[in-house]
Design brief:
By secondary structure, this protein is mostly helical. The protein has one domain. The protein contains seven helices and no strands. Helix 1 packs antiparallel against helix 2. The longest helix is centred in the C-terminal third of the chain and has 27 residues. It is flat, with a radius of gyration of 16 Å.
Length: 138
């Protein structure tokens, strides 16, 4: 059952961008995708069914949805705003890759586990479920 929510989240994410020209459908599918992301993560942790594959699929799906959203905004806005969204795509992908790779090298079991000496922003982002799931509440 948990696995189904993960894949429905991907289907809803794809549907959101398929219907990008219909604002209402876009936001319904986009919200459903991120709601299922929160639900899946919570359920996986609650039932002890979190896996490395699930963690990576979740992160890759997050990055793909973010990149598609920024790409959509690039197509809507011109000038400096367009360039800013392009740079946010690069920042999002690069920062998550560097963080996950550094956690892999250090041998931690999850990119969401923070040591006491980690950057305070990362501790807030990954350490607080309210902050971590905030995009889904928009």
């Amino acid at each position: 059952m948990l696995l189904g929510r993960r894949y429905f989240r991907i289907v809803f994410g794809v549907a959101a961008f398929w219907y990008y020209q219909n604002c209402g459908l876009f936001w319904i599918f986009y919200f459903l995708s991120y709601f299922l992301d929160c639900l899946d993560g919570f359920a996986a942790r609650y039932f002890g069914q979190a896996t490395r594959f699930g963690q990576m699929l979740d992160m890759v799906t997050d990055r793909c949805c973010s990149a598609c959203l920024f790409a959509l905004l690039v197509s809507v806005y011109d000038g400096p705003a367009s360039f800013s969204f392009q740079m946010l795509i690069a920042l999002d992908l690069a920062s998550h890759y560097c963080h996950v790779y550094s956690q892999l090298l250090s041998g931690t079991s999850s990119h969401k586990k923070m040591d006491a000496d980690e950057n305070w922003i990362l501790k807030i982002y990954y350490g607080s479920q309210k902050v971590f799931d905030a995009p889904a509440m928009l």
